[in-house]
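anyone seen this seq b4? input:
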Amino acid sequence: FWTREEALVMCFDIRIRPNIGGAIESSGQSKADVAASLRRRIEGYLSPIVKRVWLTPNGKQIENETFLKLLESPYSPHSGDRTLRPSMWDLIDVHVPRDRWPEWCSEKQQTAQTLVRKNSDLENRCREAADRASADVESQIARLLARGDDAGSAEVEREQAIGKALVDGLRYPTYEVDAAGLIVLSDKRLPQELEA
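predicted toks r here
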């Protein structure tokens, strides 16, 4: 009933967010005190992005538009879609043996994150956001220097450090798995007793 001809695919939604770790550290304040304001500031240049990656069992990215349209279609029990509950996971063992699951899933996650990191459109968006932030930081520092007071020099140093960290955080964002899923495409129905 489940054969090797069935298509097994894995999906990862990778969330890309500007990295505020360096800016928090550069602020000299606690994370609780500054994280929210720094997150708002940096995300004004680049909002979080989610990129979806579909992979075959051997880690190849699925790019065929027809296949992607099928994979992206909404879940529909009326069309025969079924959720494989934990009690049914042994049906997937023909595709990936259970003792290989942790390693296999980890490999696919790394592959998905690498594919997203190599996305040139994403690289361009990050670079453009970093360039805009850098120009704004330079402008802010020029305004602070123009004030010419002693209190301003400490503020200038702080803004330089935080500004550089924000720009770096835009150039080198964080990549984390927001969601992962597995789909088995088959033209065969599950046995009646498993659908109950």
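The longest helix spans residues 120-147. The longest strand covers residues 174-185. kinda curious what u guys think
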